[in-house]
């Protein structure tokens, strides 16, 4: 046993006084830089000399307490100095290579350093981006209830029925996760595109979490499009109203809890596009507005000598889009047209052409501009 | 005590780094610089308060070691060698600066300034706090060269021969310095203890 030898020599400490311990190199070594070996040796000695415990503790305290006052020298200052030396090492070796072969390893070392640096920057950028963009994976991972996931791996849209009777038509490549147990909250996490037909339940709002965006509805049908690779998230409303806000919205929690729909409200045939990076929201009319279901009765788009104002009123009702016009002037313009089966904008094109007017789309409405058809109307 | 002397893991690590660094391993070189820099800087501060000059000296020493790595002994513990090199370099630079500025001619080259202090965090009893304080006073009163030998021996765990290399003196001179220092410490100790004993009663 290696320690026996040390232990034998430890007898010399048996008659040590306080000051002898304080200035003993082996004692100081144990107190200031303990190793496994010194720990074992000194503890063995203390077991044999329990009466010395108090003395040893006092001496250890004084050894630890007394020392040369160090100059303040921070770890960062040290790191900087070390880096400076190492960097000089590389450049000086480059300038006057001591051996002719030294150039190649140095070249590769630097190339490798550049690659490592680039990879490092890439990684930093990536993680920064990851932190910035809330993706489906993260959201699902942080959900507080167990979730069921449905993935549409087929080439056609799949309809998924939720426990509350709502239907989700998931586009190919889309994923949704939802809880089948939680009866209090209706929440769905989405990646990809889906059409939601939500059963009305004002007491339990329905939430769609799509990356950074939260869509809150009380009972309606709408489409959420949120693919991980796309820079935009869009929400299109078919019927009813939905509220949209981002997760980072300072009032997001309050908006979520509220019984009302707060946030940016979108109505049928309106859409909202959110740029994921800046979270800038743009509200606009959908590119091809659809007729809003009207119970059993359909809409009639066969007009025979009716005032243009009446045509616009019908369109406004049918599409749920605000169409603004000067009703006095438009009352004078008779229109005869078969507009059934034409998309909204083609309908408007035809009507406006007939009455010598134009229309303009704003973010949430259509404005008809024309001078009317009366005797005072100018071409 | 020599028999009890073993290389701790710290020292073994440094010898390993030193050996690999001499073989041209830059990563070991960087590690060795990082591990010893603080010690070298604190030691250098005993001779000058010019931090930038000290950093330059330490840097020059390390760069020179890299250049001379083919001829250096891989078997020696690097600590003493580094301390000796930094000390020499600092003195050379200070001497050159002194010639240029022609001031402080009286000041000895080996001026070693150390201020010992006590940290009472580690001491419970008031009596021992008094003891620690007295010890620092005694140490601070020692001649500078004795202080340096004590500093290297008891606060940086270096051996007599290593201290001789660093201070560039004969090993016997190191022994003499340490003995003189201890005579003072022991003598003062008796006074301190009896004084504290009287005060305590």
UniProtKB/TrEMBL annotation, chain B:
Residues 32-98 form the RNA polymerase sigma-70 region domain. SUPFAM superfamilies: Sigma2 domain of RNA polymerase sigma factors, Sigma3 and sigma4 domains of RNA polymerase sigma factors. Pfam families: Sigma70_r2, Sigma70_r4_2. Residues 134-183 form the RNA polymerase sigma factor 70 region 4 type domain. One of its GO terms (molecular function) is sigma factor activity. GO terms for biological process: DNA-templated transcription initiation. InterPro entries: RNA_pol_sigma-70-like, RNA_pol_sigma-70_dom, RNA_pol_sigma70_r2, RNA_pol_sigma70_r4_t2, RNA_pol_sigma_r2, RNA_pol_sigma_r3/r4-like, WH-like_DNA-bd_sf. Keywords: Sigma factor, Transcription, Transcription regulation. Belongs to the sigma-70 factor family. ECF subfamily. NCBIfam families: sigma70-ECF (TIGR02937). This is Sigma-70 family RNA polymerase sigma factor.
């Amino acid at each position: 046993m290696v320690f026996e030898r040390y232990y034998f020599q430890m007898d010399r400490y048996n008659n040590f006084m306080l000051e002898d311990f304080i200035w003993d190199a082996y004692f100081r070594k144990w107190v200031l830089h303990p190793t496994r070996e010194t720990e074992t040796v000194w503890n063995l000695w203390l077991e044999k000399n329990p009466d010395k415990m108090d003395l040893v503790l006092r001496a250890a305290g004084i050894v630890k307490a007394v020392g040369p006052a160090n100059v303040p020298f921070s770890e960062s200052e040290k790191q900087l100095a070390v880096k400076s030396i190492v960097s000089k090492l590389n450049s000086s070796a480059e300038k006057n290579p001591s051996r002719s072969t030294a150039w190649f390893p140095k070249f590769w070392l630097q190339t490798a350093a550049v690659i490592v640096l680039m990879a490092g920057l890439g990684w930093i950028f990536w993680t920064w981006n990851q932190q910035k963009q809330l993706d489906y994976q993260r959201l699902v991972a942080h959900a507080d209830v167990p979730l069921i996931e449905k993935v549409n791996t087929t080439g056609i849209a799949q309809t998924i029925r939720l426990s509350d009777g709502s239907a989700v038509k998931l586009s190919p490549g889309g994923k949704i996760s939802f809880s089948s147990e939680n009866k209090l909250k209706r929440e769905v996490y989405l990646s990809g595109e889906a059409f939601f037909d939500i059963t009305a339940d004002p007491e339990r709002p329905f939430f769609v979490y799509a990356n950074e965006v939260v869509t809150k509805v009380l009972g309606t049908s709408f489409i959420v499009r949120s693919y991980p690779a796309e820079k935009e998230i869009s929400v299109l409303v078919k019927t009813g109203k939905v509220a949209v806000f981002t997760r980072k919205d300072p009032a997001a929690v309050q908006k979520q809890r509220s019984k009302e729909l707060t946030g940016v409200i979108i109505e049928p045939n309106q859409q909202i596009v959110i740029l994921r990076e800046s979270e800038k929201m743009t509200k606009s009319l959908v590119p091809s507005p659809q007729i809003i279901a009207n119970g059993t009765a359909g809409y009639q788009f066969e007009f025979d000598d009716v005032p243009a104002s009446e045509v616009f009123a019908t369109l406004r009702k049918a599409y749920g889009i605000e169409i603004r016009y000067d009703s006095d002037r438009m009352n004078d313009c008779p229109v005869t047209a078969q507009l059934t089966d034409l998309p909204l904008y083609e309908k408007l094109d035809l009507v406006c052409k007939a009455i010598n007017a134009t229309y303009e789309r704003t973010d949430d409405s259509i404005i008809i501009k024309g001078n009317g058809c009366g005797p005072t109307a100018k071409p | 005590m020599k028999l009890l002397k073993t290389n701790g893991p710290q020292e073994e690590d440094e010898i390993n780094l030193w050996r690999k660094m001499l073989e041209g391993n830059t990563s070991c070189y960087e590690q060795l610089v990082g591990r010893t820099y603080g010690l070298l800087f604190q030691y250098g501060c005993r001779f000058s308060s010019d931090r930038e000059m000290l950093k330059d000296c330490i840097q020059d020493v390390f760069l020179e070691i890299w250049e001379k790595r083919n001829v250096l002994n891989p078997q020696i513990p690097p600590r003493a060698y580094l301390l000796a090199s930094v000390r020499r370099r600092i003195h050379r630079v200070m001497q050159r600066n002194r010639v240029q500025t022609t001031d402080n001619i009286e000041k000895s080259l080996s001026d070693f300034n150390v201020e010992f202090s006590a940290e009472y965090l580690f001491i419970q009893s008031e009596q021992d706090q008094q003891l620690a304080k007295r010890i620092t006073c005694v140490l601070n009163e020692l001649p500078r060269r004795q202080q340096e030998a004590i500093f290297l021996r008891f606060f940086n765990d270096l051996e007599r021969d290593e201290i001789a290399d660093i201070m560039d003196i004969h090993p016997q001179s190191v022994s003499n310095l340490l003995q003189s220092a201890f005579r003072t410490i022991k003598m003062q100790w008796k006074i301190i203890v009896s004084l504290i004993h009287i005060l305590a009663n």
